[in-house]
Amino acid sequence: MNHIDQLKYQIALSLIPGVGPSLARQLLTVFGSIEPIFTSRKQALMKVPGIGEITAQKIVESDVLERAAEEVEFIQKNRIQYASIWDEHYPARLKRCVDAPLLLFWKGNISFNTGKVVAIVGTRNATNYGRDFCDSLVLEMAQRGGYTVISGLAYGIDIAAHKASLKHGVPTIGVLGHGLDQVYPRLHKSVAERMLEHGGLVSDFISETKIDRQNFLQRNRIIAGLADATIIVESAEKGGALVTADIADSYNRDVFAVPGRHADLFSRGCNWLIKSNKASMIETLDDLEYAMAWQQEVDKPTRIQKQLFVELTDEEQQVVDAMERQPLYIDQLCQRLGMPVGKVSSILLALEFKGIVSSLPGKMYKLT
């Protein structure tokens, strides 16, 4: 099957009601390839763990291949870039999320797997305090370099973060709650077009998707999943930004919140996140870089000094070899080494004591 037919079947699978990312992966694991899923009988589908009679019936009766073929034409005509979760160029941070979408679509000039990626989100009713914070924080990011800012292109804090990024030359990515055939709200279309040169637009929805509140809540998981850390600038006690914070926390990603006066309506959510230890307080970029261990170690003594001629066990050497090129999450190490989490954790602890490995936020480790 060529890659275009493969894409058509992948889109079709994502369009079947009741078949989310987890079930899609389960089906592909059992059947080995995607086409047999659409040609199998109901009884065969029901043998797949997680596929009940109702879902199996929906797959058998599904008539989504024609719509999927139309979407392939749209992708080709508009030069939309895409990746399935099995592709190497699928965003690595998002791939580690349990509910990562089967397919991701984007356009622009985006580098998903490099640098420091930070989501900045908040209320649609941004105040001058919130907008000024976005501008000053992104300015600091521009001065230090290596940052990408992600947000949702919505009114308020989202668009303030995107505009600040464009103003200061920081790449910025907008995650949409609809397909790449439109921009919502329309008022932000000119900003979105400028972002294509200095970042881009991303979605897991196909074209002609209706504007729906639930879709924007769903897109929040993409914002959180693409980022190393999520910053809530302003939020009331309820809102989409707090949903994004919860999702980021569930992904074991760091969450930060900007403090405000207790009487300010759109600081209450942030203050609550800090007070309940669901987010770390952030006032400047230094707070973020310290918490994320991103600060530049210039003329600072190393807290853990490597021992000279240290002796490693065979298993310790395997872990060191696996981490030679880049920092890794503990689950990535477990997968590469074929070892259980408990075993790898104890080896990493031993390597930390020997000054060979240091830990980063989110259960990530690097060689010192």
Structure description:
The protein has about 375 residues and is α/β, with parallel strands linked by helices. The protein folds into 3 domains: about 5-75, 5' to 3' exonuclease, C-terminal subdomain (DNA polymerase, domain 1, Orthogonal Bundle), CATH 1.10.150.20; about 105-290, 3-Layer(aba) Sandwich (Rossmann fold), CATH 3.40.50; about 315-365, Orthogonal Bundle (Arc Repressor Mutant, subunit A), CATH 1.10.10.10. The protein is about 45% helix and about 15% strand. It is built from 17 helices and 12 strands. It has helices at about 5-15, 20-30, 35-40, 40-45, 55-60, 65-75, 90-95, 130-145, 155-170, 190-195, 215-225, 240-250, 270-275, 285-290, 315-320, 330-335, 340-355, and strands at about 80-85, 105-110, 115-120, 145-150, 170-175, 200-205, 230, 255, 280, 330, 355-360, 365. Strands 1-2-6-5-4-3-7-8-9 form a 9-stranded mixed sheet, sandwiched between helices. A 3-stranded antiparallel sheet has the order 10-12-11. Strand 11 (about 355-360) and strand 12 form a beta hairpin. Helix 1 crosses helix 6 (about 65-75), helix 8 packs parallel to helix 9 and helix 11 (about 215-225) crosses helix 12 (about 240-250). One of its GO terms (molecular function) is DNA binding. InterPro entries: DprA, DprA_WH, DrpA_SLOG, Hlx-hairpin-Hlx_DNA-bd_motif, RuvA_2-like, WH-like_DNA-bd_sf. It comes from Sunxiuqinia elliptica. This is DNA processing protein. One of its GO terms (biological process) is DNA-mediated transformation.
